[in-house]
Amino acid sequence: MKADANAEVMSTGKARDLREWLAHLEATQRLAVIREGVPLEHRLAAIAKRLDGAQAAYFPRPGGHDIPVVSGFVSRRAWIAEAMGVEQAGLLAAFRKAVEHPLPWREVDAGAACQQVVHRFGQDEQELDLHTLLPIPTHSEHDNGPYITAGLVIARNPVTGVQNVSINRIQVHGRDRMAILMLPRHLLAFYQAAEANDQPLDVAVVIGADPLTLLASQAITPIDHDELEIAGALHGAPLPVAKCLTSEVRVPANAEIVIEGKLLPKLREPEGPFGEFPKYYSAQENREVIVVEAVTHRYNPIYHTIVPAEMEHLLLGSIPREATMLAHLQRSFPGVLDVHLSVGGVGRYHLYVKFRKQREGEPRNVILGAFGAHYDIKQVTVVDEDVDVHDPQQVEWAVATRFQADRDLIVISGAQGSVLDPSTTVGYTGDGVAPPHLQGISAKMGLDATKPVAYHGHVFTKVRIPGETEIDLDQEIVRGAAIDWSNVTVRT
Question: Where does the record place a coiled coil (predicted)?
Answer without folding.
Answer: none
